[in-house]
Amino acid sequence: MRKCYVATLGLALLLAGAAAAVEPGEKAPEFERPDLDTGAPVSLEAYRGKIVYLDFWASWCPPCQVSLPQLDALQDELGGDLFQVVAVNVDQDPRKAMRILAQMGLSYPSASDPEMSLPEAYGLETMPTSYLIDGDGVVRYVHHGFRDGDLEQVRPIIRDLLRAHPASPAR
Amino acid sequence: MRLAASIAALALVAMIAGSGCTTVKPWERETLARTDMTWSPDPLEAEFKGHIEFSKEGALVGGGAGGGGCGCN
Hints:
The structure holds 2 protein chains of 2 kinds.
Chain A: H1 2-15, E1 32-34, E2 41-43, E3 51-57, H2 62-78, E4 83-89, H3 94-104, E5 110-112, H4 117-122, E6 129-133, E7 139-144, H5 151-164
Parallel strand pairs in A: 3-4, 4-5
Antiparallel strand pairs in A: 1-2, 3-6, 6-7
Chain B: H1 2-17, H2 43-57
């Protein structure tokens, strides 16, 4: 019996540092960080009521750079009153990310998190990772990694959420 | 005796948990993503060697996420 307690305590110690990944159905952790470009605060709360596609990226992550212009096109296509792409950059030196933003000219906000506390809070399992969050702040879909064509999987899910949105003109 | 053994086991577990052995989290791989940190800085050469190893030895080529490289998907 005592050995069982010791083993359990040992396992608890080992797992103590492990961050639980945010899964669909769970509330997305709230945050507020400065925008890379303007310095203005970017928060999830500000987009409450909208469907948010939250994308974690970094300048050193090649698949992330593939995704950026495609997410910009997604924002142009679906963005408006009901949908918004929001990015979180995790470069320790934000200037590296700012150079990429200057080259690409993205139309959606990119928050800067050089302390990398948000990936910890979300329990990211890979880079990049994106979260589709509904108007109530609940994660509805998690997309791990990015390759060309991935948004073809995501687009129908976003459209379904848009159709189901209380303010959708389709209702 | 049993108590001493249990305390020793617990101490060992605590030492392992608190040791420098740790996995690098996906968002912490900036330094590992540098080209000079990859097993082979030339991706074409790495692929060529990996193909040879697989053909000759049936060996699966590792590297990437486990060692250098961004470990991205």
